[in-house]
Specification:
By secondary structure, the chain is an alpha+beta fold. It contains seven helices and 15 strands. Strands 7, 8, 9, 10, 11, 12, 13, 14 and 15 form a nine-stranded mixed sheet that branches. The model has no long low-confidence stretch (mean pLDDT 96). The structure holds N-(5'-phosphopyridoxyl)-D-alanine.
């Protein structure tokens, strides 16, 4: 695998970062995960805009221009195997003497890798659990400091579930690494954007394709009670796409099987991907 590190393309085994890097010491950095279909970047403008927002929020100047990002990502795709790939990029504040305050004249570290994309899970419907949202107040920043998310996902996996759905003050926020939709009487609902959720690119795309197809959907608060009585629940992300949840806290969601609205929306989503592939 060829990766990109600070201006160079090199084999993964040769990519080395200082142990004093603030990403390693403090989790002081941000990241993006960008799918690639047919060697084309999916929703790249949206991903780069979110990266820009994350960098601004942590007061770190974007080390690359918009065009430099595109050129670098395209070169990395060409260096790697597979028409469908998943790019992981991270920008940290860089190596410096350990000090909570930002160091002077530090050079950010830019690391990018691209793996062959993992096929989304077979569509059999998955289990989820609800958990108290123990994270901080800036969940809209795509921070590399993910300890709370990791512990929450682990909590789910330990009881045989796929995702933890996070509840704050009685309302659904998102999953440990996904956004959440519910379906009530045929209407898809997802929580509005706020500082407590990541503005997911997949989430926005789902709203866009549903609106274009005149399928009812809206952004609204979802209480824990509404979650438990929903007809359908989906969790969404760039790498896992739209995953139907058929069991929540060991109780069936709706009829306990994959729902009809999910089936319509996954079709629209796949068509959108296919469009990118065939726009050669
Ligand atoms: N995570 N919310 C959280 C907390 C996430 O970590 C993610 C994605 C999402 C969905 O965002 P998007 O549709 O833009 O992927 C929502 C990525 C995939 C990850 O950490 O690997």
């Amino acid at each position: 695998m060829i990766v990109y590190l600070n201006g160079e393309f090199l084999p993964l085994s040769e990519a080395k970062v200082s142990v004093l890097d603030r990403g390693f010491i403090f989790g002081d950095g941000v990241y993006e995960v960008i799918p690639v279909f047919g060697r084309r970047l999916f929703r790249i403008e949206e991903h780069l805009e979110r990266l820009e927002n994350s960098l601004k929020a942590i007061k770190l100047e974007n080390p690359l221009s918009h065009q430099e990002w595109i050129d670098t990502l395209e070169k990395l795709i060409a260096h790697n195997q597979g028409d469908d790939q998943a790019i992981y990029l991270q920008v940290t504040r860089g190596p410096a003497k350990r000090d909570h305050n930002f160091p002077e004249n530090v050079v950010p570290t830019v690391f990018i890798k691209s793996d062959p994309i993992e096929t989304p899970p077979p569509v059999i419907g998955m289990k989820a659990i609800t958990c108290a949202d123990i994270r901080w107040q800036f969940c809209d920043i795509k921070s590399i400091a993910l300890l709370a998310n990791i512990l929450l996902r682990r909590q789910a996996v330990e009881v045989g579930a796929y995702e933890a759905i996070l509840i704050r003050d009685g309302y659904v926020m998102e999953g440990a690494a996904s956004n959440v939709f519910i379906v009530v009487d045929g209407v898809a609902i997802t929580p509005p954007k706020s500082q407590f959720i990541l503005p997911g690119i997949t989430r926005d795309l789902i709203l866009e394709v549903m609106q274009a197809a005149q399928l009812p959907c809206r952004e609204a608060d979802i209480s824990e009670a509404q979650l438990h009585s929903a007809d359908e629940i989906w969790v969404t992300s760039s790498t896992r796409e739209i995953v139907p949840i058929i069991m929540l806290d060991n109780k069936p969601v709706g009829k306990g099987e994959i729902g009809p609205v999910w089936a319509q929306v996954i079709k629209l989503y796949q068509e959108n991907k296919q469009k990118l592939r065939s726009n050669a």
